[in-house]
Amino acid sequence: METHSLWNEIVTWNMDYKSTISKIMNILGLLQKRYIKDPEHSKPTDEMIIDAGYPAETHTVVTDDGYILTLHRIPHDAGGTYNRTRPVVFLQHGLLSSSADWVVTGPGKALAFLLSDQGYDVWMGNYRGNTYSNQHVNQDIDKKTYWAFSWGEMAEHDLPTMLSHMMEVTGQDTFYYIGHSMGTLTYYTACNYHHWIQNATRLMVGYGPHTIVANMISPVFGLMSQFAKDIQWILDYLGLYEFLPSNWLIEWWAAKVCDESMMHQGICENLMFLVAGYNKNEMNSTALSYIMGHTPAGTSTMNMLHYGQSVNTGGWAGYDYGSDQLNLRRWNSTRPPTYKYDVITAPVALFWGENDWLVVPQDEAALAGKLPNLVLNQRVDEDAYTHLDFLWGMHNMEKVYGPTMELMEKY
């Protein structure tokens, strides 16, 4: 596969080192500015579900390390009734996302509604640090402590807590799992910590699936991977831990990746598209304002740095704290753990896009080649298909969701 031109620009970026660090410090000093979202286009997940005519439930759980998480549920289809025999499916969002992404495009299009119409009891998780899961039992917890997490903690603590709650409420001992992006990475990682998860999984479906991201071409992570150690130092001394990019940084990234049509639609002002790319063939312009009203949904800077580390090392491992002492405190070893594939014993189906900036075909193939129970490895039939299309693509019923539901019927 040819090297992407955007990656070449990042790699050859030759700003003076001290000037670069100074600019990064200025960026981080502006991180407190949040996106201002139109209330009409940013209704909470449960309200969107109710507005669509479906029943909605909101559940709150607490992890063993004190993070308060919110789950959303569609227990049955519109106009139907609930019974405990409905099969359970758990949808887990990806990086900078939330449960809203599974419903925002509306009935007949969004995956959560389609699954409900097909007779499933649909649950949607929210990882720590996003719009719906940003509280802790310790109300006096300081920001540095609260935001000291990455996808490793989500896999070790959040996912098992949410899945256990779902199983307890429904009384079912098996479930289907559909993850997008980081929602796949955390599932595979969770299997290393909690073997009951793979044993209870009837089928795991991954959209934009990954463990390693060595060949990622996202310009956002290209920058972060180059200066990961320096950014960590800045964070430690300036106390900025939530990932809230400033206008300066967004404009810089936009200049690298945006064309005229993207500028016109305001897409270049939204971090998600700068991180993961944009495909005009799959984007419904009517839905765009609603999509942008819910993304990005938030995460920690440490989580972004963990991805940057993964780009640098080319491996699948825990967060490296940068010193033997800190690693010993967290991992009881001077090196973070390397995760294993042989524990992922559940049937796994993968869907991937040719134009995915975050999970390039080479990295997806590396994952597919190591899974012990791979039942499908499907390239989406569109050359321009990219990472976010799995959530909002106009042709997903034909290209992704339909094939997913057909496969689920076999398990």
Structure description:
This protein has 411 residues and is an alpha/beta fold. 42% of the residues lie in helices and 12% in strands. The protein has 19 helices and nine strands. The protein has helices spanning 5-11, 17-29, 45-51, 111-117, 143-146, 151-170, 182-193, 195-200, 219-226, 228-238, 247-257, 260-264, 271-276, 285-292, 301-313, 324-331, 361-368, 389-392, 396-408; strands spanning 57-62, 67-74, 88-92, 121-125, 135-136, 175-180, 201-207, 348-352, 374-379. Helix 1 (5-11) runs parallel beside helix 9 (219-226), helix 2 packs across helix 10 (228-238) and helix 9 crosses helix 15. The longest helix is centred in the middle third of the chain and has 20 residues, at 151-170. The chain is globular.
Strand content: 5-15%
Tally of DSSP β-strands: 9
Largest sheet: 9 strands, mixed
The gyration radius over C-alpha positions equals: 20 Å
Helix proportion range? 40-55%
Distance linking N and C termini: 34 Å
Task: Spell out the helices and strands N to C.
Answer: HHHEEEHEEHHEHHEHHHHHHHHEHEHH
Q: From the helix content, strand content and strand pairing, which structural class follows?
A: alpha/beta
Mean pLDDT metric: 85
The residue ranges in which pLDDT falls below 50 over 5 or more consecutive positions are 1-18, 20-36, 245-250, 260-267
Instruction: Give the overall shape.
Output: globular
Number of helices: 19
Summarize the SSE layout with pairings:
Layout: H1 5-11, H2 17-29, H3 45-51, E1 57-62, E2 67-74, E3 88-92, H4 111-117, E4 121-125, E5 135-136, H5 143-146, H6 151-170, E6 175-180, H7 182-193, H8 195-200, E7 201-207, H9 219-226, H10 228-238, H11 247-257, H12 260-264, H13 271-276, H14 285-292, H15 301-313, H16 324-331, E8 348-352, H17 361-368, E9 374-379, H18 389-392, H19 396-408
Parallel strand pairs: 3-4, 3-6, 6-7, 7-8, 8-9
Antiparallel strand pairs: 1-2, 2-4, 2-5
